[in-house]
Design goal:
elongated; mainly alpha; 0% strand
């Protein structure tokens, strides 16, 4: 059971590392992305070595019991060192001198972590009292071994310090960014750090209880690993949100916009770009580009049908829509959908009203951002075939038909 869970998490984490590494290789100047890649790799390695069968298999291969624990905790140290460097970078201040000073402090910090960890590994090497494998209860099996306790205490001290610092700074940094996927990722990362501190606290309390003659294995070997696993998942989620979030949002926009885009461009194929850019490729490629193109092409169609829409059509639609108590966002979407359908309908039969509309796009002060504009067009797509639109179109047809008799 543990093997399957941890190996699956490890495989998913390494897939995330590969994705981030590709992005980093494209932008080597993005130091924060490089650090995130390295820290994610540390978490991924932790998951792999947490699988009991891999833990024992590694130790059997090298011939040293519990050496896998050293590699597991060393991976945690990679994460901790990366976190400390991020802290120094984010608090460095402005200017080249400040950044240079931060780089110097970062090198010293990494050196200090490496030195302390060398002491910790030495404690493990000289203090390991037996050759029995302990993949699940290592911290409680050696509470009477001073060397191993030096190893564990230094590990928890370095790890806890990095978690506390990163967990404190991430929400502050996210608050400066405003609503964005990066801000959401930082907040999730902070939650993972604080839950990681629960893991550290459980281990320290477990040590204390063991030394006082009241061992609590359920705390050290049960609650602590569970909290660490959930914390690691939160950390990975926090790292993945800035990249995955926009793509998921683009996929959702595409899923909602595509039916409307297909409908309106079927009658105006001249506004569409050649789809060869993504034909035959992975269907999730270029999601944001495709969403941008669909929105732009829908807008092109709207501009092209203005003269086929009666000048008072939108006013009539808004009047009828207000009668059913729609909010401002829904009113704008219904008005645009009705005008779009009316314009396409009139153009199909070659009808040009005496007074065409100046615009069929309903402007709104609450849509200054691209994401809000996407959401608006998605609402237009949602109501495009609604009964209310059908009712309004019937009235518009009747009004336009009367003068032509």
């Amino acid at each position: 059971m543990f093997d399957v869970v941890y190996l699956c998490f490890g495989a998913a984490a390494w897939a995330l590392v590969a994705y981030k590494a590709v992005a980093w290789f494209r932008d080597r100047s993005n130091t924060d992305l490089g650090l995130a890649c390295v820290m994610t790799g540390g978490v991924a390695t932790v998951f792999l070595f947490s699988a009991p069968s891999l833990y024992r298999g590694f130790d059997h291969l090298v011939g040293v019991a519990n050496l896998a624990m050293v590699f597991l905790y060393s991976s945690v140290m990679v994460f901790a060192a990366g976190a400390l460097v991020l802290l120094l970078r984010w608090t460095a201040g402005e200017g080249e001198r400040a950044r240079a000073a931060a780089r110097t402090r970062a090198r010293r910090t990494v050196g200090a972590v490496a030195l302390l960890w060398a002491v910790a590994v030495t404690g493990f090497a000289v203090g390991r009292p037996d050759a029995v494998e302990h993949p699940r209860d290592f911290s409680t099996a050696y509470t009477d071994a001073p060397g191993v306790m030096v190893f564990l205490v230094l590990y928890l001290a370095i790890f806890g310090a990095s978690l506390a610092g990163l967990g404190t700074l991430c929400p502050r940094y996210a608050a400066r960014l405003g609503p964005s996927w990066l801000a959401r990722g930082l907040r999730v990362l902070a939650a993972g750090c604080w839950l990681g501190l629960v893991y550290c606290a459980c281990k320290v309390i477990g040590f204390g209880l063991s030394w006082t003659g009241h061992p609590a294995r359920w705390l050290s070997n049960g609650v602590a690993p569970l909290s660490a696993s959930v914390a690691a998942l939160l950390v990975l989620t926090g790292f993945s949100l800035p990249a995955a979030g926009p793509r998921v949002a683009a996929w959702r926009r595409l899923r909602r916009l595509t039916p409307l885009w297909r409908t309106v461009t079927a009658q105006t194929p001249e506004v569409t770009m050649d789809g060869s850019r993504w034909s035959g490729r992975w269907p999730l490629a270029d999601l944001e580009w495709r969403a941008n193109r669909q929105m732009a092409e829908i807008r092109d169609v709207q501009r092209g049908i203005r003269r086929h829409v009666e000048s008072d059509a939108i006013d009539i639609v808004l009047e009828r829509a207000r009668a059913v108590s729609l909010d401002d966002r829904q009113l704008a979407a219904v008005a645009e959908a009705a005008a779009l359908r009316r314009g396409l309908e009139n153009r199909a039969v070659g009808h040009v009203p005496a007074h065409g509309a100046d615009s069929v796009v309903v402007a709104a002060a609450h849509r200054p951002e691209l994401a809000a504009e996407y959401e608006h067009l998605a609402l237009v797509a949602d109501v495009y075939r609604s009964p209310l639109i059908e009712t309004v179109l019937v009235e518009l047809r009747q009004r336009s038909a009367t003068p032509r008799r």
